[in-house]
Every structure is written in C-alpha cells, then in structure tokens.
Amino acid sequence: MKTQEPREERLWLHRLVGDWRFEIDCSMDKDQPPTKSIGSEIVHSMGGLWMIGEGISEAPDGTTHTSIMTLGFDPAKNCFIGTFVSSTMTHLWPYTGSLNSEGNILTLDSEGPNLNNDGAMAKYQDRIELVDDHHRILTSQMQGLDGQWTKFMTAHYFRKTN
Which domains does the chain have, with CATH numbers? Predict the structure, then answer.
C-alpha cells in the first residue's frame, strides 16, 4: 500500500496537534443554567493522516470524564471523517464533514440518540472553529423535529504554553 501524501485538509487538521486546556458550557435543558467544566486535551498525529484527541475533564458533580476524538480526511470520499467516544456515553459518534469556504470552521455531521432520551435518533453537528493557532472553539448542536438547530455545548480550547 502506497503511503498517503499530506493534503491541504490534513495540514488543517495538523493545526490541532498539541496540549490544550478547555472550558465547557453545556446546557441540555434551556430552562436550567448551563453547567460548566474544565479539562485538558492532548492531540497527536498518527502518521500525519489522523489526529487523535484525548480529553479529560471534571464535571460539576466531581466525576472525571474522558473522551477520544479521531479526525482524518478521506480523499476517496472527499470529506473529513472521524469518530467520538466518551466515558459518559455508550454511543459511538461517526463523523463526516467539510470545511467552510473561509477554511476556519470544520463542520462534522453525525447521528445519535436525541437529548430527550425518548429512544429516537437525531442529527448532530460538531463545529470546530480555529480562531487562531492558540484558540479554537467547539460547538455542538442538535437538529429538532422542526428542522431547527439548537446549540447545547460550547467549549473554548486554549493551547498550553510552557
């Protein structure tokens, strides 16, 4: 098998590599104030083709949450692909996505259990915005039955400096 050459999309993903700290605001219920948590993430490259992000955070109730996000680019499908898993969920979130025309926001589409816990599935989007080389924003939103998107989580990531 021939080794894949770096592409522009993979170079974009490589900007995520590093040690990060993050602050999350999450609001699953619009009638309640958002919960806040902090954490850290280490993103490393696997052969220049995949970015692996390993996160750890403390929830407001004091429990520890871990997560792993994988991101790559599939030239055969001409789209970004990846997965997300979390120690707080039993669902594997598969991603397909694309960059916006300005090249600063990666929108990742997925499907999973809706937030109403009624057993139905819903469409989700995670959006990674590169503000600059030291700050990125991850937002998560779910599409309701009415077709409207509702944002329920925002995380600001800041690159750790020595």
Answer: 8-25+35-159 (2.40.128.20)
Q: How many CA atoms lie within 13 A of 127 on its CB side?
A: 17
**What mean pLDDT, rounded, does the chain reach?**
91
Residue 1's pLDDT band (cuts 50, 70, 90): low
Distance between start and end Cα atoms, the chain: 39
CA-nearest of 46, 42, 70, 44 to 57 is: 42
Q: Computed from CA positions of residues 39, 44, 50, 51, in that sequence, does the dihedral angle turn out positive or negative? A: positive
pLDDT for the residue numbered 119: 75
The helix/strand/coil state of 104 is coil
Whether 97 contacts 115, CB under 8 Å: no
The secondary element (H helix, E strand) that includes residue 158 is strand 149-159
* Pick from 93, 98, 95: nearest CA to 112: 93
In angstroms, rounded to a whole number, what is the distance separating the alpha carbons of residues 156 and 138? 7
pLDDT per position as a tens digit, 27-52 = 876 777 778 899 999 999 999 899 99
- pTM beyond cutoff 0.85: yes
